[in-house]
Amino acid sequence: MSALELTDVVVDYHGRGGRVRAVAGASISVDRGQVVGLVGESGCGKSTLARAAVGLVGAAGGTVTFEGRPVTALGRRARPAELVRLQLVFQNPYSSLNPRRTVGSQLADGLIDSGHRAARVPELLELVGLPPNAVKRFPHEFSGGQRQRIAIARALAADPSVIVLDEPLASLDASAQAQLANLLGRLARDLDVGLLLISHDLAIVRHVADTVSVMYLGRMVETAPTAELWDRPAHPYSASLIAAVPRADGAGTLPVALPGEVPDPANPPGGCRFNPRCPHAFDRCRVEDPPLVELVPTRSAACWLQPAGQPPEPLANLDAPSGVYMENPPNPSPSEGGVHP
Ligand SMILES: Nc1ncnc2c1ncn2[C@@H]1O[C@H](COP(=O)(O)OP(=O)(O)OP(=O)(O)O)[C@@H](O)[C@H]1O
Ligand SMILES: [Mg+2]
Fold it and tell me: Whose CA is nearest to atom 18 of ligand 1?
């Protein structure tokens, strides 16, 4: 059993507009020492799944276990001791650090073994590449990248077996992103910590993740070892994400074959959830939802084109028909009907 295991997890939000099923039966697991990437467009449910993984939201269905024990929603209670070794790092380190306390005291708080605090704090700083004098300084004295290192050091203080990182690099500039991505990969290996790395930046995920899960509208559509996913994506959605043209700001521009946005999870399309945007969709896809099935022991996909028990079939090149790419305007307006149908 993996250190962190989510099986068929369902998460609903209840608002004025009714129920929104943000996660609609998603499975993912993380072993110690392993970096698992989770990718997908904005709104597909990545953060919600991360919150369910650590017990910040309750699951309406499915199971979440950490080190063999069920993770249940925490509510307002304090974090139970058995969950301390499951840590969460957010996108914005400034919001999770106390601006009025020194870095050293905040790291010492996180240490579970209080006997060795004085010695452990400098060790933690060194692990994340911060100078020893950071102990006496305050969060505002550091750059964004350094602050995220502090947040990571604080997570490491709990001697975690798994850290869930939700877009940990998104607020940083490109060079800080690359350095921090390298640091994460090294920490996973050296400390035998499992990382669930959520990112919309596929280049970073490709660089550090051992395996990748691709999420679409609340479900996993594919899971595969990273190199194999890039080499031969099994699901048309994965193929589209990989074919997306990188923009200068780091965001991708989806190929013209994949127009539009993720549909509203409150009102998902019938059949395969991806069918309205899929260049390969055929009749069955419009009426029957394909289950996630194992293709080979390390790979699974949810697509009628990929039968269970068979190595993935190469998808006819998604970007070949036109070679023309849709421009994603920085400020999309509703009048641009071609982009937002
Ligand atoms: N507190 C909430 N109440 C109601 N709906 C929510 C809430 N939080 C998220 N949602 C909805 O749930 C869906 C999934 O959101 P989520 O934040 O998990 O996506 P995401 O993949 O993390 O997106 P992003 O890449 O933009 O961070 C979206 O449709 C979103 O609007
Ligand atoms: Mg998110």
Answer: 45
